[in-house]
Amino acid sequence: MGALTLIVLLPLLGFLLNGLLGGRLGRTFVNVVGCGLPLLAFVVAALTVRDLAAAGYPAVIETVYTWAAFGDRSFEIAFLLDRLSAVMVLIVTGVGTLIHLYSTGYMKGDPGYARYFAYLNLFLFFMLLLVLGRSLLVLFVGWEGVGLASYLLIGFWFSDPEKSAAGKKAFITNRIGDAGFLLGMFLLWQALGTLDMDAINAAFAAGPVPGLSAALVGILLFVGATGKSAQIPLHVWLPDAMAGPTPVSALIHAATMVTAGVYLVARLSGVYLVAPEASAVIATIGVLTAFFAATIAVVQTDIKKVLAYSTVSQLGFMFVALGVGAYGVAVFHLYTHAFFKACLFLGAGSVIHALGGEQDIRRMSGLARRIPVTFATFAVATAAIAGLPPLAGFFSKDEILWYALASERGGSTLLFATAALTALMTAFYMFRLLWRVFMGASRMSHEVEHHVHESPPSMTGVLVVLAVLSAVGGFFSIPHFLEPVLPLPTIDPAMEHFHVPLLVLSVALGLTGLALAAWLYAGDASRAARLEARFAGLHRLLTGKYYVDEFYEAAIGRPLEWLSRRVFLGLGDRILLDGTLHGLAGLARRAAGGFARIQTGSLQAYVLLGLAGLVLLLTWSLGNG
Amino acid sequence: MAEATLLNYVLWLPVLGMAALLVLPRGADAAVRGLAFVVMLLQFVLAAWLYGQFEAGVAGLQFETRLPWIADWGVYYHVGLDGMNVLLVLLTAFLGPLVVAGAVNAIRQDVKLFHAMVFFIQFAMIGTFVAQDLFLFYVFWETMLIPMFLMIGIWGGERRIYATLKFVLYTAFGSILMLAALIYLVWSLYEERGALSFAFTDLYGLDLPMNVQAWLLGAFALSFAIKVPIVPLHTWLPDAHVEAPTAGSVILAGVLLKMGTYGFMKLGFPLFPEAAVAAAPLFMTLAVISIVYGACLALVQDDIKKIIAYSSISHLGYVMLGLACFDLLGVQGAVIQMVSHGLVSAGLFFMVGMIYERCHTRDLAAYGGLAKAMPVYSVFFMVLTLASIGLPATSGFTGEFLVLVGAVSAGWAQHVAGAGSTTLVLGVMAVLGVVLGALYMLRFARLFLFGEERLPGGHAVADLGLREKAILAAIVVAVFWLGIAPAGPLAKTESGSLQFQQLVLGDAAGGAP
């Protein structure tokens, strides 16, 4: 078995072992299997990448088997390891393992402990299929699979109807995106006869593909990405997905799965390089999502919801980079975001854990002294996402802003200005969160305060590792590393001299956000309250999340229900179809008199009648044969 | 050739089983069940062996038997396996022992008669699949009606008489049309060749004028469409399912519905190729209507059996779409989708039966949070739900994916060639249909498995027993087999799909000006 196959199969083994035996063999077994196999996958991945590095990063292809063949065309199950998938596989197994470890503390005592780890391992398996798959088909299998794992984990505490509803919403919303993904994939298959992504990139690089527009394929696949990566208009599921256990939010709904759409576009950069229209769509959707999600994050009061909208917004940033052809930069932000957002979510988990399940930031304050490790790590990650130097987020966000302004593949002042404004808001809402939760005098009841406790080392240890990565991760320049496979776009020469001022601006944005939050939320946050009262209408619009959910319910949900129940079932099946049939039957009965009586007669007699007929037919036919 | 006759054993074994049942004394229920199970299992083993021996890539029939039956009429007892029926025979034989095992608790009345009927219907269904002579086909086709009718009528629910009547009237109406068309068809052959023959291969060669083809296709198609069923000929199905005992539902959904789609593939389209090509947009439109309509209705059902019944209409819409797009991947996908639906819906009907035996209601609102009360049951239910939705690695994905690739590819090729965009639009709509599929099944799963634990009557129920687990495990293994490694089965069915394509398109291309 090849190394890549092994990396993929290790977590699957974990799923099977914990799923089938975990409940019976106890916590130690679950821990060893649940954390050990992802760790092993990380080690194998690291060793494989080391060998790859020694060889100068040639693309390694490992074909496992043929899924289906049709004449000379076939669907192969194969894995591809190159610089891009190397980065992804290390993030997925690395951050994945950390979050598994954290979970041993966070989920301790949960009756579904074994089931939880089985699901989490299953997620890793599909995520690895997704990032290692050579063909779009394998990627799609992973894509659907992570969606399944996400569905199962969002609804992990399934007794709560709201949580299982959130899982369903995530699945359905993703399915809508998947319809676009499928169509894009079908067109590629029809035109090229292959779904291997290296071959697809090569085909589009070689010139226009007859009978297929790159723009159309690009947009269709991006529709899939808007589902998985929670971009407008399919972003609505991610905030609800916070119903899942917090480590799940960190792993699936922040660090890895939701970045799959970003990976997809980067992986198929060959298509998007020749599809400026599709790229423009991506940049536009990306920046709009980044902006609007940030405005919502500003007013959220649930610690996890703030982070969820922040994730939606940050993913928007990544799509901005993709839209202006800076694929490596998008992956850079994906990579730094994986560290600081995982750290933030796990930190939030630690807060929730400390407060016995409380998630409302209005009922938190002054926690810094009570849970110092959580505070310190959360602060580092906050500074990182706000883009303060020299933390990881500073480097990746600065590069996004730079290419949004200066890329010759669609950079523009408007794009840049919106992204910069969003960066300011990001710093603001993150420091607001930090302030409300950790700073100031305690506003908690004595009862709650008494129980506040720092999390166990299994959790804080992971927080520290992630905080360190959030701090120093930016020094490893992913765009530079990826340049051989994902070249950076050329810079508009007229913009060249803006590079340094932009750096300064970037830092200034972060600090302004910090200052604003500190000023507004200082003391009893009365300034913030006054502001809220002053702009009550806007505040309502934002806390109502622009009423997108309500709009979908009114525009799609209820009409579909009405169509199904009233038109199809009521009018169609009952009145038109069965009504006609009953009418005809009534006529026939009146015409044929007692026919109906025979029909309800002894059924046993029919058996004999039927059998006798059959026997007669056989005898007669043999006689004639 | 001992090997060549093996197919006959598979076909006639149930008849032997029926005879053996007669010998058993009245009231020896355990012996009846045991005997039925062993015979069915033997049939499956033989069918599996046949499947293993069936050579991929060989055009035409294998394991063929051709004996004169009614010589004066040119009627032959002619059976054989080809790429079109080989998987369906395997599916039918696979479900046989499971049906018997599944009826242990549910069927307490007239046990012997019940198993005789199961044998009877098994015989008729496999006969319909393997028949290569139109007369023989028609006999088997009609024969199927009797045991199914009795199964619902005797062991069915409260409104069983209404349901059987509806079922019989619909089907009989279709059969009469088919019979008339059949006679006309054979007569045409006689006029052209001067000899009577019912052989499929002879009939395929007939060159009928377009208007005649259209009428005959219409008659055959109505008969098949009722069986599938295609909207708007479907209202017998939910009633039949709701009233049928579990075994009846399993057989109905598992195999009987495929008679319609198989009929289109083996006879309807190849016998009247020009008419079929001309009417393809109509069939595809009806297929997409079935996909959407069935899904929408499944979305608003409160009876758990009806949800699955309506989902069948939607799933078989994909089969029709794959067949009517005439693309190789689409046709191959249609074959896999037939088998997949056979497995998944059979599994789901088994599961509905299992919960019904415990709680005695099919009202969805009466249930909730089963995942807590019956964890093993819920895992199986979830797996089958996901297969129904068409999640990758399950058979549902293989079928749907290939059908949709085929339909969209064919549509795009036509669109680019300037030959109209109907196929493309329909293909795209079918792709959107996958969203609806997820919608109704996840609604079902959410209300049924999740939420607060709620059971009818409020008393605790036992999770699945070993027998029940074994039935479902067998189905789940098959579901994953077709999902993860469909290359093997697809290789075996390819000759059939190619033949179907060649019979329909080859003739149409030849006939085009």
Please provide a written account of the structure.
The complex is a heterodimer of chains A (625) and B (513). Helices cover 74% and strands 3% of the residues of chain A. Chain A has helices at 3-25, 27-54, 83-106, 113-132, 136-154, 161-192, 197-205, 214-228, 237-240, 246-255, 260-267, 269-273, 276-299, 303-323, 327-354, 372-386, 392-406, 413-438, 446-451, 457-472, 478-482, 499-520, 526-534, 536-543, 548-592, 595-599, 603-624; strands at residues 60-70, 73-81. Chain A has a two-stranded antiparallel sheet. In chain A, strand 1 and strand 2 (73-81) form a beta hairpin. In chain A, helix 8 packs antiparallel against helix 11 (260-267), helix 15 (327-354) runs antiparallel to helix 17 and helix 17 crosses helix 22. Mean pLDDT of chain A is 90; it is low at 594-598. Chain B has a domain at 279-513. In chain B, 75% of the residues lie in helices and 3% in strands. In chain B, strands 1-2 form a two-stranded antiparallel ribbon. In chain B, helix 4 runs antiparallel to helix 5 (134-155), helix 10 runs parallel beside helix 19 (487-511) and helix 12 crosses helix 16 (395-416).
Distinctive features:
heterodimer, A: 625 residues, mainly alpha, two-stranded antiparallel ribbon, 3% strand, B: 513 residues, globular, disordered C terminus
